[in-house]
Specification:
It comes from Scopus umbretta (Hammerkop). GO terms for molecular function: N-acetylgalactosamine 4-sulfate 6-O-sulfotransferase activity. This protein is α/β, with parallel strands linked by helices and about 550 residues long. About 40% of the residues lie in helices and about 10% in strands. The chain has helices at about 65-95, 130-135, 150-160, 170-180, 180-185, 215-220, 220-235, 265-270, 310-315, 315-330, 330-335, 355-360, 375-380, 395-405, 410-430, 435-440, 440-445, 455-465, 475-480, 485-495, 500-510, 520, 530-550; strands at about 1-5, 10, 45, 200-205, 240, 245-250, 255-260, 280, 340-345, 385-390, 470-475. The longest helix is centred in the N-terminal third of the chain and has 35 residues, at about 65-95.
């Protein structure tokens, strides 16, 4: 079978293909016709079977047509290339937005992670074999040796800018101007026969009045509603009636566990509340001084209505009822018995969280807050006692990360967040003072991990500007973990608590630890040795100063 490629007409044997538009006349001869003889065309032969063409194959020697085909080919390749780039861009955007940290990074970080071996002395004298036991880098991990000098430069810059300058303490009148309502509610004198700071306040409601109807803690938190439901039922029974007037007993805490988060404050709280003479607020951490009085429920949710001081005092009503029972007992009236029940409050944000000041207080000096939490606590309670529980700031930061991070948690991800936070902190220190950076709300919210919480000495020095040193007890979690009985005895002595029976003491000291690391977090293992070395360098000057202030080298955390 034969096909005329020029004509594309199906030809049978001996057919003169009269239908060919390029052939003329009935006497046409295939051999003489220049078109059909093969000039300027290429005939295509197949077998003798009849078949149908599904496409037209035209092969021409025309050079212009050849160039047209070439350009069509180039256009096709260009379109394919553009389409491929678009797909790759979409894939990269999707990868980055999901925050994936494992495997091959499409956008490599300037800070790599891996086994750091260039300076073993920076690893607290850990040997290379010890490091390998802690962490085996994957094939994709790149050694940190190349990048460590650049991070060390960041830390050196921060260290060179550190100055521990004593802050100016505001006077009482300035504080009154900032919080007039608070000063109108809390008196400057308390009941003389109560160890805990308490006073009587006139109650002007009647038996049908709900004293907790507007309490913000009850309105915004479900966990408080059960407590306030109970308080409503017993409220009227605990009023003191005198000369046709009704009075309720109000109390503030005698002591505060002020910090730090992830340092064992929950365990200390759980053990202390087992003491027969100790009571706490309705919840462990009201966060009133640092957040609720400014209207902060959750930082990510912005500001709400400010919680008045009355809402905070309501949290101590259960304890106040018990104190009132002691004060109103016949034995107490006859013998002038002293109430020995004390109330505690354990918001671990009290020591360090002053992030809200910038939204409420004017007259800041070069970015430093003019008023701090301790200024107001001291104004009302100059004799308050403060307990601080600390731990190695390097380990505290990793524990903090594991507790609060919600997704993609890993030692590698923690490492990247530490590197980013150090860069942000350095940028602040280049323009502002240490105190301004530590209390900088914008910086603290921008850092992926809370580096600033581990700068213990900065906060402690600011608390020491208003409170005497003997009013502050500083403990180490490491000591508490090794000997609960020893640390609890220190706390009992500090709070002037009475002696306990052996059974009571055993109950307090031998109960299991509270708020330990979750199993899923323990499975992630320790931080990378390189990350630990970096954080050791960063916290070293602050730990050195802390040890000097407390006259205790244990706060250097050389071995933890």
């Amino acid at each position: 079978m034969r096909y005329c490629i020029n004509c594309c007409i199906h030809l049978l044997p001996n057919d003169l293909h009269r239908q060919c538009f390029r052939c003329r006349g009935p006497n046409h001869n295939n051999q003489k016709c220049p078109v059909c003889r093969g000039e300027n065309k290429i005939p295509l032969y197949t077998d003798s079977k009849q078949m149908k063409l599904l496409a037209v194959l035209a092969v021409r020697t025309d050079h212009s047509e050849s160039w047209n085909g070439f350009f069509c080919l180039r256009k096709g390749k260009l379109c394919s290339l553009i389409f491929g780039l678009i797909i790759m861009t979409l894939v990269m955007a999707s990868y980055i937005l999901t925050g994936a940290k494992h495997g091959l990074l499409l956008i490599p970080s300037p800070f790599h992670y891996g086994a750091f071996t260039s300076n073993p002395s920076l690893m607290d004298n850990e040997s290379l074999s010890d490091m390998k036991d802690h962490y085996q880098p994957s094939k994709m991990n790149i050694s940190y040796v190349k990048d460590y000098p650049s991070i060390k430069l960041i830390i050196d810059t921060i260290t060179s800018k550190i100055e521990f300058i004593t802050r100016q303490r505001p006077d009482l009148e300035e504080l009154r101007k900032q919080e007039p309502h608070m000063f109108s509610v809390i008196p400057n004198k308390f009941l003389p026969n109560s160890k805990n700071p308490c006073w009587y306040e006139e109650y002007r409601g009647n038996t049908t009045t709900d004293p907790y109807a507007t309490n913000s803690y009850a309105l915004y938190s479900k966990r408080f509603r059960t407590i306030f439901d109970y308080l409503r039922k017993v409220f009227w029974n605990h009023l003191y009636h005198y000369k046709d007037k009704h009075y309720r007993l109000r109390c503030l805490p005698h002591f505060y566990i002020i910090g730090q988060p992830k340092c064992g404050t929950t365990d200390l709280y759980d053990r202390l509340r087992l003491h027969p003479d100790v009571r706490f607020s309705a919840s462990k951490e009201p966060h009133w001084w640092t957040r609720k009085r400014f209207g902060i429920i959750r930082l990510r949710d912005g500001f709400h209505d400010r919680y008045p001081v009355e809402d905070y005092l309501d949290l101590f009503d259960l304890a106040a009822h018990q104190i009132q029972g002691v004060l109103q007992s016949e034995a107490a009236k006859e013998r002038g018995k002293m109430n020995n029940i004390i109330i505690g409050e354990a918001s671990a944000s009290t020591m360090w969280d002053n992030n809200a000041w910038i939204f409420f207080y004017d007259n800041s000096t070069e970015g430093e807050p003019p008023f701090l939490i301790q200024d107001f606590i001291h104004a009302f309670q100059p004799n308050a006692k403060l307990i601080i529980m600390l731990r190695d700031p390097v380990e505290r930061l990793y524990s903090d990360y594991l507790y609060f991070a919600s997704a993609n948690k890993s030692a590698e991800d923690f490492h990247e967040k530490v590197a980013e936070s150090l860069q942000l902190f350095e940028n602040c220190m280049l323009d502002y003072s240490l105190r301004a950076c530590v209390y900088n709300n914008t910086l603290n919210n921008a850092m992926p991990v809370r580096l600033q919480v581990g700068l213990y000495v900065v906060y402690l020095l600011d608390w020491l500007t208003v409170f005497d040193k003997d009013q502050i007890l500083v403990l180490r979690l490491e000591d508490h973990a090794s000997s609960v009985k020893y640390t609890m005895h220190l706390v009992f002595q500090f709070l002037d608590l009475g002696p306990l029976s052996e059974k009571q003491e055993a109950l307090i000291t031998k109960s299991p630890a509270s708020n330990t690391r979750r199993p899923e977090d323990r499975s992630l293992g320790p931080m990378l040795p390189t990350t630990k070395a970096i954080l050791r360098d960063f916290y070293r000057p602050f730990n050195t100063k802390l040890a000097q202030v407390l006259f205790d080298d244990a706060f250097l955390w050389k071995r933890t």
